[in-house]
Amino acid sequence: MARARTRRSLSTFSDSPRILIAGLGNAPYPSTRHSIGQYIINGLASHYSIHMSSSRGGHQGSNPTGSITLFKSKQLMNVSGPSVVASMRAGQVPPSHLVLIYDSLTHAPCRLAVRFGGSAQGHNGVKSVMASLGASATSKPFWQIRVGVGRGNPAGSGVDGEVSQKRMINKSVDAAEWVLGPLSEEEKRYWGVGGKGLDAVVREIDRIMEKLGEEADG
Fold first, then answer.
1. Which of 55, 73, 126, 137 is the most buried (most CB within 10 A)?
2. For the chain, what is the domain count?
């Protein structure tokens, strides 16, 4: 029988499943759309009161119970896979307990899309992680939290100050140029500490941990 747990305090249980949450990005360019995964890791570190320390491959820290480890690679996006996988192996974290957070051009700004497994869909950072794992779209699946950055239209304020979540995809805009552009102030607030976007990410992490806990309980 599964043990009863409260969603709010999942990470405080000493017997909670251990997960590694890795945010993809380009470390030298922390406030670009392409680095939104690492921007969110910064917010999660504050939320969980995790101190991030520099290591050979990146910046890493864990909560007191060790159930959540956060990781940001020091490498550029396209070659970040080896450092992510090295962190997994050091913490004995299996692929099914990896949560990868990264930008998505195919989702509107401030949208979250969560899935377990699936292909890289052209994202070079995800490709690098999969190559380092020796994984395909179906073997060694891991959790993916895709964060919408749109394409060609930045997030703006909507009704009552909410961030507009209209689908804004303009394929005539160069993808590489777009993702290397800066996050808007609205996006920074939304995904930052106290923002509704960061709260949504925390809820998804709780949901993932609950599912992994249920699987462990049988």
1. 73
2. 1
Q: pTM for the full model?
A: 0.89
Q: Which residues are catalytic?
A: 34
Between vectors from CA 39 to CA 84 and to CA 210, what angle results, nearest 5°? 65
CA distances to 64, 93, 147, 185, 204 from 150, in Å: 36, 32, 9, 15, 21
CA 199 distance to own-chain centroid: 13
Whole domain around residue 130: which residue ranges?
A: 16-217
Beta bridge partners of 133: none
In a domain, 8, yes or no: no
* Residue ranges with strand state E in the chain: 19-23, 53-54, 58-62, 68-73, 98-104, 112-116, 143-148
Residue 137 lies in a domain: yes
Cα–Cα–Cα angle for 104, 108, 111, nearest 5°? 80
21 part of a folded domain: yes
Do residues 120 and 105 touch, judged by C-beta distance below 8 A?
no
Residue pLDDT, tens place only, 45-102: 999 999 999 988 899 999 999 999 999 999 999 999 999 999 999 999 999 999 999 9
Nearest to 149 by CA among 112, 185, 120, 121: 112
The structure tokens listed for 180 are 């290397």
What's the CATH code of the domain at 196?
3.40.50.1470
